[in-house]
Write a structure and sequence with these properties.
single chain; 107 residues; alpha+beta; Histidine-containing Protein, Chain: A; 3 helices; 6 strands; globular
Length: 107
């Protein structure tokens, strides 16, 4: 497994390329003031549904499909939480980058 540090401004994103599964996983700190609750969660789900790749979000030992609003809300992700976003499929790089950028933005 390779780890490459991103040249992102806050350098909190770790890119991990799992060569066995050819999957991208990113650990990212959530900067949204309200975390991933209500409106931001709905936007995150809509963004996720725009990609063909199999996606997952992990937090506190739980792993969910981010295309499910109930699954995402069940994680209770607050501002400052570090989550893992994984993508596997034809548009995995774009999906992981878009979802990472979304949670890193400030409201």
């Amino acid at each position: 497994m390779k780890q490459i540090m991103s040249h992102n401004v806050n350098k909190l994103v770790k890119y991990k390329l799992n060569q066995e599964k050819n999957m991208i996983s990113k650990e990212v700190k959530v900067n949204l003031d309200s975390g991933l609750h209500a409106r931001p969660a709905a936007k995150f789900v809509q963004l996720s549904k725009g990609f063909k790749s199999k996606l997952s979000v992990s937090y506190n030992g739980k792993n969910i499909d981010p295309k499910s609003i109930l699954g995402l809300l069940s994680l209770n992700i607050n501002k400052g939480s570090v989550i893992c976003i994984s993508a596997d499929g034809e548009d995995e790089t774009q999906a992981a980058e878009a979802l990472t950028c979304f949670v890193q933005q400030t409201e």
